Amino acid sequence: MNRLFLGLTLAVIAASAAYAAGPDLGAVAQSATNWPAILMFLFFVLLTLGITYKAAKGTKSAADFYAAGGGISARTNSLAIAGDYMSAASFLGISGLVYTSGFDGLIYSTGFLVGWPIVLFLVAERLRNLGKFTFADVASFRLDQTAIRIISAVGTLVVVAFYLIAQMVGAGKLIQLLFGLPYLYAVIIVGVLMIVYVAFGGMKATTWVQVIKACLLLGGATFMAVAVLFKYGFNPEALFASAV
Is the whole-model pTM more than 0.70? Predict the structure, then answer.
């Protein structure tokens, strides 16, 4: 119940912000109905919901919910982390930073990538030794529990809300473009799907959804890179000259 309430709170905050930010991107011109794209979208939604249902049936304890019962291999987990890193928020945010700050905007992407493993090395061992699952559990072990949990919850909601704004704006605009729905309804659909994946499927469902996303993004990006290089005879100098 607590995790569902937290998920609902975060989704409402992010959905409100995403709805407010969406119109700033300009009106979306709906193209002709693209049935293959719509069917592919529905296929992946049903596939991920099926994964969530299967994961929910196997979630019996806190360890299952937070750590997938320790059953995720290193290769699968690495793909999931890659899928989490390659998100709409990352692509939109880094593209915007590069547009406004030039090459210096890439520092934010590399800084995040370098900082993440350092935080994991500092916290992961303590989590394992204490048998806990969150940073608040570790910090409250030595500090005042009520105060540290309030600070952790507020910090998490504030930081993740900004991350979710770009995520939900991108997904909402995509659904609006595919189905011609009002932007508000598109954002609500995205928020509901996010809550279902996390609140019911736990880490196991979240991991496999991210794995699917990582495979799609890596496959699509690789195909586009090869196609662009093929156009220029696999000559990077010609590609850069044309871009300049």
Answer: no
